[in-house]
Structures are given as C-alpha cells and as structure tokens.
Write a structure and sequence with these properties.
Its main location: nucleus. It comes from Rhododendron simsii. Pfam families: Tfb4. InterPro entries: TFIIH_Tfb4/GTF2H3 (IPR004600), vWFA_dom_sf (IPR036465). By secondary structure, this protein is of the alpha/beta class. The chain folds into two domains: 14-104 and 114-223, von Willebrand factor, type A domain (Rossmann fold); 236-273, no CATH class. It is 35% helix and 15% strand. It is built from eight helices and ten strands. The chain has a six-stranded mixed sheet, with helices on both faces. It has a two-stranded antiparallel ribbon with strand order 7-8. It has a two-stranded antiparallel ribbon with strand order 9-10. Helix 5 links the parallel strand 4 (141-148) and strand 5. Helix 2 (37-54) packs parallel to helix 7.
C-alpha cells in the first residue's frame, strides 16, 4: 500500500514583499527621524531573518524605493542560505542602489525632502506577486510591507490608488510602518482598503520589536491576534490640476478625474463640462413660488 502524499498547505507560508524607503533627503534631514539609516537596516535585517526562521518555506523579497527609481535588491529564493550571505547580499545591492539613486537625484534638483517613488515600488511588488500566482496552484500567501518615511507625493496619487485597488482585487494586504514625523494619507488608505495593518512606532529604537510582534505573523495567524487598528484614516484626494490635497472639488463623470476648480474641459479625457452650479434658485423652485392667478 503506497503512503498518501501530504497536501502542501500554504496557510502559514508567507511571501513578504518589503519596500524600504531609501530617500537620502529624508534620512539626512534633521528632526525627521530619531534613528540612523545604518541602525534602521540592522533592525530590518534581523526582522527578515526572523521571518525566514519562522517557516522554511517563507520567502522574502526586498524592493528599494528611491527618489527617481526603485529596484529589487534581495530575493531569498535566489540568495544564499546562510544568514551572513543574506545580509551581505542585501547590503551590497542596497549600497549600489543608493549610489545610483543619489546620482540621479543630483541631475534633477529636489526642493526639501521630496517624496519617494512609492507608486513604482508598489507596482513592482504587485507584478512579482502576479508571477507567483501564475506559477502553480500551491504558492505562499503574499503581503506587502511598506517601511516608509518620506512625505506623500500628490503627483503619484493616481498611480498609488490604482496599485491599492489592484492589491485589493488580488486580496494582497498592504502593511505600513511609518518612520517619519507625519502620517501618510496614502498608506493609511492602502492599509484600510486592503485589510492590512498601519502602524507608526513611537520609539524607533525598538523598531525590531515592533516589526517582529506586529508584522512577522502570517495571514492565517492574524485571525487569532489583536493587531493595532488605525484611529483615523485620511480619505482626502489630490487634485489632478495642482496636485494639492483637497476636501471638496469637481469630479469628471467620464474618467473620475478630480479638480480643485471648475474647468471647461477635462485635462485627462477631454470631456466638455457644463456650467458650474450657482446659488440661484432653480426654475422648478421659481414656479413653485409664483403665486397662482
């Protein structure tokens, strides 16, 4: 009698896509973060090793998010098995990426801290996950973890929202760990819409403890854990004309583009808009107010 082959269970096997913010202007600016970039990487490497130790089938992919570009810097499926080899491979490729991104940043002048290319790294993570989905019926449960600190870039609003809705449709949670002084409206919406966890640690010196206790557990184990919940979510959108965050605006009924002021034509699809509504009473109200003769 032949033994029954055990079924490969993927409930507790994770594919963790980690997006690391490498914005040099953010990490070098004063009063933006209380932790050095080198120490931050030490916490991240320890966290990645702990995730791989939880299950031998777990996979970790790291994507660096810069000012002008983003790229894959580490894949545990292709890297060495020893922890020292993992750390050396990750740090070496990360240094090469930071140097390349700084050279591109010098060519294009940046005022202030600037925003990282979060939309690009999210798109790359989702493309990698789609390849995993199509690899076979048995695959690990994917999720995305954004280690982000740069301010939101309103010019990326459309691309980021498209990535969020794509992750929601693919049932891929987007977790967010904020490293900067301010909250991120984009990542708040991403975690809320996709069912992920949004966290802004109070003490970055204990970043590894936050990462290991909140973001290391697989999706199946999260059903039995009390994870942090966001107090409030900023659902404000950015206008397409000036890239500003607005509370009220005008929406194109054809392509759903958002504008802070009334325009004659939609700059996205070219649709012709009607006249803006005024406070004048409508003709129906005037007829009602006309006295009967």
């Amino acid at each position: 009698m032949t033994p029954v082959q055990p079924k490969l269970s993927t409930d507790d096997v994770s594919l963790l896509m980690v997006l690391i913010d490498t914005n040099p202007f953010f990490w070098s600016a004063e009063n933006t973060t209380s932790i050095l970039f080198s120490k931050f990487l030490a916490h991240v490497v320890a966290f990645l090793n702990s995730v791989l130790l939880l299950n031998q089938l777990n996979q970790v992919v790291v994507i660096a998010t810069g000012i002008n570009t983003c790229d894959y810097v580490y894949d545990s499926a292709a890297a060495g098995a020893l922890p020292n080899q993992r750390a050396e491979s990750l740090l070496q490729k990360l240094v090469e990426f930071v140097v390349k991104d700084e050279q591109l940043a010098k060519e294009d002048s940046v005022d202030g801290i600037g925003s990282s290319l979060l939309s690009g790294s999210l798109s790359m993570a989702l493309c990698y996950i789609q390849r995993v989905f199509r690899s076979g019926p048995h695959h690990p449960q994917p999720r995305i973890l954004c280690l982000h600190g740069s301010p939101d870039g309103p010019e990326q609003y459309v691309a980021i929202m498209n990535a969020i809705f794509s992750a929601q449709r693919s049932m891929v949670p987007i977790d967010s760990c904020l490293l900067g002084a301010q909250h991120s409206a984009f990542l708040q919406q991403a975690s809320y819409i996709t069912g992920g966890v949004y966290l802004k640690p109070q003490q970055l010196d204990g970043l590894f403890q936050y990462l290991s206790t909140v973001f290391a557990s697989d999706l199946y184990s999260r059903n039995f854990l009390q994870l942090p919940k966001p107090v409030g979510v900023d659902f404000r959108a950015s206008c397409f004309c000036h890239k500003n965050t607005i509370d009220m605006g005008y929406i194109c009924s054809v392509c759903l583009s958002i504008f802070c002021k009334h325009h004659k034509n939609c700059s996205t699809c070219g649709s012709v808009f009607g006249q803006a509504q005024t406070n004048a009473p409508s003709t129906s109200n005037q007829k009602r107010k006309t006295p009967e003769t």
